[in-house]
Specification:
By secondary structure, the chain is of the alpha/beta class. It folds into two domains: 5-174, Phosphoglycerate kinase, N-terminal domain (Rossmann fold); 187-384, Rossmann fold, CATH 3.40.50. Helix content is 35%, strand content 17%. The protein has 14 helices and 17 strands. It has helices at residues 34-48, 73-83, 98-108, 125-128, 133-138, 172-185, 205-212, 224-231, 246-259, 300-311, 332-343, 354-362, 376-384, 389-392; strands at residues 14-18, 25-26, 29-30, 52-56, 87-90, 114-117, 143-146, 168-170, 192-196, 217-220, 262-264, 268-272, 282-285, 294-298, 315-319, 348-352, 371-372. It has a six-stranded parallel beta sheet with strand order 5-6-4-1-7-8, sandwiched between helices. Helix 7 (205-212) packs parallel to helix 9 (246-259). Bound molecules: adenosine-5'-diphosphate and magnesium ion. Magnesium ion binds at residues 353-355, 376.
């Protein structure tokens, strides 16, 4: 078990909080402040405990170091509004250069409570976790708090490097992610149904393999179904299929058989002639896909089949949409799966994966899911059973 903010005292201390302020910004205006709002509980916790807060985060992917377009300045403004107190912004292209050094020094001797540093990716050392950047960041604080789950699967200066110089604890957002995701990994309530979909089977080999020996039932949808169908000798037409992963799909099918679990592939699909949102779709049995057709969603019989399995579950893990949910005409499979989870009021449900999370929210089922992970790649790796460096680097209880 890793320490969290609740295990340490922040009285008269300065905390360096690694937040996830990677928010969408258009022409200097934040278009969604959800991530900033999500960071508030941890910041407020430290403040209420008598500490000062220095925040850091990355924003976007600036290519060659400092770039005004990726400045965290708008975040400082919004954060100040949300917290209702002044938030200082250290506008230093070097992030921890002389401007920031000076500001931090003054900040510590002032009545101000919160200071935000510039985008950590303005420093090349950030993603390499090399050089002096981590040491410089750490020199500003007494305790490190990691609250950025979205980057927990990466060992960067601002989430892992700093822990060589400071004791690290998990923030409240991170703690929630770890607690909820662990519930499906360690002793989950049976029967367990895992639902996998999305674009590519190659992205999901790890997670599917990890769950084969944990669950009772696996349901496969999304474009990845076609690689499995092809592995069974079926024709998939123009559907997104990974030819070089057919052998892997065969291995997965064999492992599932060996484990004695239910591994259900779709029995029908919705097809179109091209990758477009059209009302002119067909419903086809999976052994009847024409060479000029493309499968863009699971079919109605599959929706019923999957809903029936979800109804019996005590635990549901879901990663990957069932179809091209971005198109109105091919969102139904994903919607029916979300509906089935919502209808099963007693089950514990977790959704991981960036697109899966946005699909569930877009379709209006956010409140019906026990936990929607905020980390795309990080939740996927966590559910694969990989130890995340951004968690591992924190102090043990
Ligand atoms: P997540 O981000 O939840 O892990 P992925 O990134 O693996 O999910 O996959 C999401 C994408 O898969 C979506 O953009 C969706 O349109 C696409 N997708 C799902 N089914 C199909 C399909 N049958 N054909 C093409 N793309 C699909
Ligand atoms: Mg994705």
């Amino acid at each position: 078990m890793k320490k969290t903010v609740k295990d340490v005292s922040f009285k008269n201390k300065t905390a360096l909080i690694r937040a996830d302020f990677n928010v969408p910004i258009k022409d200097g205006v934040i278009t969604s402040d959800k991530r900033i709002k999500e960071s508030l509980p941890t910041i407020q916790y430290v403040l209420n405990d008598g500490g000062k807060v220095i925040l850091c985060s990355h924003l976007g992917r600036p290519k060659d170091g400092p770039d005004k377009e990726f400045s965290l300045e708008p975040v400082a403004k919004r954060l100040s509004e949300l917290l209702g107190i002044k938030v200082l912004f250290a506008n230093d292209d070097k992030v921890t250069g002389s401007i920031a050094d000076e500001m931090v020094k003054e900040f510590k001797n002032s009545d101000d409570k919160v200071l935000l540093l510039q985008n950590t990716r303005f420093r090349k050392e950030e993603t390499k976790n090399a050089g002096d950047f981590a040491k410089q960041l750490a020199s500003y604080a007494d305790i490190f708090v990691n609250d950025a789950f979205g980057t927990a699967h990466r060992a960067h200066s601002s989430n892992v490097g700093v822990c060589a110089y400071l004791p690290g604890v998990l923030g409240l957002l991170m703690e929630k992610e770890v607690t909820m995701l662990s519930k499906v990994m360690d002793n989950p309530k049976k029967p367990i149904v895992a639902i996998f979909g999305g674009a590519k089977v190659s992205d999901k080999i790890g997670i599917i393999t990890n769950f084969i020996n944990k669950v009772d039932t696996i349901l496969i949808g999304g474009a990845m179904m076609f690689t499995f169908l092809k592995a069974q000798g079926l024709q998939t037409g123009k559907s997104l299929t990974e030819e070089d992963k057919i052998d892997v799909a065969k291995e997965i099918l064999a492992k599932a058989k060996e484990a004695g679990i239910k591994f259900l592939l779709p029995v029908d699909v919705k097809t179109a002639k091209a990758y477009e949102d059209t009302k002119d779709f067909k419903i086809k049995k999976i052994n009847n896909i024409d060479s000029d057709e493309m499968g863009l969603d699971i079919g109605p019989d599959t929706m019923d089949l999957f809903a029936g399995e979800i109804k019996k579950a005590a635990t549901v893990v879901w990663n990957g949409p069932m179809g091209v949910f971005e198109f109105e005409n091919f969102a139904q499979g994903t919607l029916k799966v979300a509906q089935a989870i919502a209808d099963n009021k007693d089950c514990f449900s977790v959704v991981g994966g960036g697109d899966s999370a946005s699909a569930v929210k877009k379709l209006g089922f956010e409140k019906n899911i026990s936990h929607i992970s905020t980390g795309g790649g990080a939740s996927l790796e966590f559910l694969e059973g990989i130890t995340l460096p951004g968690i591992e680097a924190m102090s043990d209880k």
